[in-house]
Amino acid sequence: GAVVSQHPSRVICKSGTSVKIECRSLDFQATTMFWYRQFPKQSLMLMATSNEGSKATYEQGVEKDKFLINHASLTLSTLTVTSAHPEDSSFYICSAYPGTGDDEAFFGQGTRLTVV
Amino acid sequence: SQQGEEDPQALSIQEGENATMNCSYKTSINNLQWYRQNSGRGLVHLILIRSNEREKHSGRLRVTLDTSKKSSSLLITASRAADTASYFCATPSGTYKYIFGTGTRLKVLA
After folding, report:
1. Nearest-CA neighbor of A30 among A106, A99, A100?
2. How close is the nearest chain B Cα to the Cα of A110, in Å?
3. Cβ–Cβ contact A58 with B under 8 A
4. Contacts of A101 (CB under 8 A, 6+ apart)
5. pLDDT confidence of A1, banded at 50, 70, 90?
6. What is the mean pLDDT of chain A?
7. What is the pLDDT of residues A8-22, one digit of tens each?
C-alpha cells in the first residue's frame, strides 16, 4: 500500500515553544491530508483537513491560530503547534489519500508530543 | 458528536479464542473501515466494507455490516498474542474525511 511518513516520531519541547510535525506521502500525491489528535486510551479526534494550495479547514473547537497547518505541496503537510503548553501533549497522526478511487486512507506513524 | 461507538471498550481473551467487537454509527454511509493500532503507534488499515456488502473476509478477519441497524462487527478468529491492540471503526463524514469510533482495546493472553 501507499506510504505516509510522519516526522518526528517523538518530540519533547518546553512550554512556550513551537513544534513542527511533518506528514509526507512518499509514493503518491495527496491534495488532501488530515490531522488527528489522540489522548491516551482514547480515539482519534479529527482536528483539521489540510488542502494543498489553500487554507486548512478546522473542526469545531480546534484553535487554528494554535495549530497552524500548511500544505505547501502535493506530498507535504505540516502541523505546527504554537506556544505549546503541557495540555497540548498528545499523539498526533496524519492521514492522506492517493485519490485513486478507493477510499482507504493511509496513516503516518504518529508523533508523540510531550510539552514540559 | 458524530463519533461512532464501539463495544466492548475493552476485551480480554485467551489465545485461540475468537474476539468480536461491535461498532455503531449515526449517519448513512457508503463504506465503513476497520483499523488496528498497536500501543503508541500509527494505524494499520484492516478492511473496508461498502454499504452494498453484508460481509467481508480477510484472513482471520470477518467484518459484517448492517446498514439498517447502522452497525458493524469485526470478528478475529483464532486470536494470537500479536493481535493485542486497539481496534477502531471509521465512517466517512465528507469526501475522504473519516470519523473514528471510540475503539476496543483487545488483549490476547498467551
Report:
1. A99
2. 5
3. no
4. none
5. low
6. 91
7. 999 999 999 999 999
